[in-house]
Amino acid sequence: MKEPILEMRGITKKFGSVTANKDVDLTLYPGEIHALLGENGAGKSTLMNILNGIYKPNHGKIYYKGKKVSIRSPRHAVDMGIGMVHQHFRLIPTLTAAENVFLYMPDCKLILNKKEMEEQIGKWSSEFHLNVDPSALIWQLSVGEQQRVEIVKLLCRGAEILILDEPSAVLTAQEAKEMFRVLRRMADSGKSVVVISHKMNEVMEFADRITVLKGGEVEDTMPASEATVERLTKAVVGERELKPHKNEGGTCREEVVLKLENLSVKNDRDLMAIKNVSLDIHAGEILGIAGVAGNGQKELAEAVAGLRKVVGGTITIHGEDVTTQGAKARVKKRVGFIPEDRLSMGLVPGMNMEENRILKEFDLPKFSRHHILKKKVIHDTVQEEIKRYDIKTAGDKSPVSLMSGGNQQKLLVAREIGGDPVLLIAVYPSRGLDIGAAEAIHEILLEQCRKGVAVLLISEELDELFQMSDRIGVLCSGEMMAVIDRKEADYDTIGRLMSGEHYEK
Ligand SMILES: Nc1ncnc2c1ncn2[C@@H]1O[C@H](COP(=O)(O)OP(=O)(O)OP(=O)(O)O)[C@@H](O)[C@H]1O
């Protein structure tokens, strides 16, 4: 057996009354991909942030290449050879990939030597098949490409341990496969890779070993070859039985809530992102939208939510033309919106849970009277939702940026449903959620549907779409290829429509 490159022993980290990690042991070997799994708030990011020098543990020791170390900061970590790709990338959009990489180098003088910069990036890029164009501007790159720039940054800096926080959450299935191939090449070259993930199948396919955290402690650790979905599920959610919630149909009413007619919308680059799309959603119906990310889903959701200008066609809600109305009017019409990017669009990271909860409704009689907030009502509402949705807080008055990603998502869903919507737009609602929480969100959406809410569900997971939708529409290059009754749809047909084939019954 090889010597470990890193050992974490008895790591405990507390934030006030919250114990995020308790007596955790983790060993990493050179040449392995090690997956960290666990429910939302289990302490995965905290443990990796300790390794990355962002947090100092209250107790415990870290041994790196056999020597006891104290990691003082992310800079110190990367100097030692430990680098992390965060969920929210740390790149400057208006600079090129090469400029971003070299701003990260300790000796920024290299930035003056453009040729040398590009050669270095080319070397790493070709060694691991990363395919990064050094002269491309970051804002012009896809999320997958930006992620690869982040990886090149760490490689150029000499990283031997690479930590990736939910790297596949923002990638298409194809991109995720390619990314894991890159990670395998890095492991084969002797580097250690730690991947935080919620996707059990992905982890079993790509990792060498898996560690599951629960309530801040190590619940189980195993070679991937010994992992099964049952064993992992048990370690993640415990003995609690998980019932996949399925849309059994029969809730769809006659009344049309949302109607789009020949809708056209542009993206941020002023290119047509949604082209002549027509659809309707009835009360009590879930219309799923399938498609590879980047085919107009974001623009469609934002136009329906009143956040993006419509350049052609109409949007009607309950028979009223709302095409030119903005987001505020949509809130009054009780349109709920769970956006793709919870931290930049859904929540205000610096505000606490209560403030975020009332953001859209603070001026309604429910939460204020004569401009004075009803603090007790707000407090009680949030406490009730914390219980109902099993939200793990970072302290009631702490900013939501300190909550774990999955718990932020639950808070956002709780707020949008708390607004008693007639139409709910849910974009990748289960992204970043553990398997138990994802099922809870599915049940919440179905409950809304039974109450007569019309749901526009955008997802990349075909399993989720087939489980939840009454009908499935497929977007490809901004065009609605077809809208098919779920009972008549199959994975193969939807897959082919997603790649641009035309629908034939
Ligand atoms: N800076 C902080 N201050 C206060 N509490 C924190 C802080 N960082 C994390 N926590 C709390 O520690 C616990 C563990 O959070 P962590 O982000 O490590 O979980 P996670 O397993 O990564 O979850 P997820 O899968 O949802 O991303 C949570 O209850 C979280 O609210």
UniProtKB/TrEMBL annotation:
It is found in: Cell membrane. Pfam families: ABC_tran. Keywords: ATP-binding, Cell membrane, Membrane, Nucleotide-binding, Repeat, Translocase, Transport. InterPro entries: AAA+_ATPase, ABC_carbohydrate_import_ATPase, ABC_transporter-like_ATP-bd, ABC_transporter-like_CS, P-loop_NTPase. Residues 6-240, 258-502 form the ABC transporter domain. It comes from the Bacteria. GO terms for molecular function: ATP binding; ATP hydrolysis activity. Gene3D superfamilies: P-loop containing nucleotide triphosphate hydrolases. GO terms for cellular component: plasma membrane. It is a peripheral membrane protein. PANTHER family: CARBOHYDRATE TRANSPORT ATP-BINDING PROTEIN MG119-RELATED (PTHR43790), GUANOSINE IMPORT ATP-BINDING PROTEIN NUPO (PTHR43790:SF4). This is ABC transporter domain-containing protein.
